Fold this sequence. Notes:
This protein is of the alpha/beta class. 39% of the residues lie in helices and 19% in strands.
Amino acid sequence: MLPVVSLRDVSRDDVDRIGWWLEDEAVSSKWFGHYACGDPVHRGYEPRHMLEASEGEWGTAFNDSTRLIYSIYAENGDHIGEGQILLDGKGSAELSLLIGRKDRWHHGYGTSAVILLLEKIFKDLRLQRAWVSVPTDNSPATGLFEKFGFRLEATRDICKRPDGTSFTTNIMAADASRYAVPSRKEPEARVSPVITVTGLSGSGSDVVATGVARKMGGRLVYDEIADLLRRRLGCSEGEIDWLETRYRSFWHRLLSSMMVPMDWSSAYDAGYHHLMLNPNVDYDLFGEHITKKQYLDGLAGVVKTLAAEGDVVLHGHASHLFVPAGEVSLNVFVSASPEFRAERMTALRGSDLVETAKWLEKEDGGQRNTFRNLFDTDILDMGAYDLSVNLDRVSFDTAAQIIVGAVRELVAAGPEAAVKPVRETVATS
């Protein structure tokens, strides 16, 4: 699994570490965009000079709208590198990256950072092309960008080293349509599918997802999605629950808008913007709540990161809405009648059938409201799925076999067909 990283504003302590890292030739030679020989060169600013720079000069360097500079931090709070996006004003951007902590090399940190930087280029900035300049002897970096759809466009001799050899870089580029499509040019390349499984409460979609992962030899991801989202947003589990709960019904959002400032919570999106502060409430205790946009962007990033690994089965969390279009994927909906679900949950919970049926009805309403209000869609919209199986008619194991069979046929059809699955519904009733 790829490690979790975050992009932060650059601090003076970060700049100090950058300067020390670049003193190590093994590190500076891996800096994408290292355009000179001899002394280590840093793009955009000179680290040692910026340590003593005035606030005005600092702002000029780090608030430049054409050069976006980010510090890269690991999940445990360690500063591990820097990434830059240089806009050319013509719809393209150059990406540069440095992982300065050598103990973090070859552990996926560069991959995670590239995912975030490319998200900013293609999603946030809506640019059409990204390119990198990679030293020709940096084969791990070359392989990394090939996986993201980058292709070699040119090779340049940048300068002569003191020993007479040339410092040469490869110019690699990808456009927005190719982003996130792994390189499958070679016939022997292995296709790694992404499967999402969705279902209403009590349907047994979790059992089916587990069976699919076991039969495919892949990894099942469920609770981990929420954990990765929490870490990606830098918030608590309670804040995630707060937002999701507020989107389960109109009344929750209406009450929220009366209790806390509208830009603190999901109440802002309810359409009702009356604000009535309670003088007896200490709003500082609420902290800074996440917004709907932050939640959706974070969830999309988590799913994209998991999908990049391949051979993964994602259960729930509306993951079928966020799988990148270029991935080999199959989105599955597991259906079951209210009677089937009520009987199953009654047996599992040891509860009364009538009470369980009422509980499921309430859960269905909340789940559908969450999809409508938070994801702007309907969980029962079959147009969002490639495959539907009905557990009233087939067993859990048979359902898993149907899904695995569909995935294998998809993969066997070849890479080009695999990334554009044909949507269909299996008639099991």
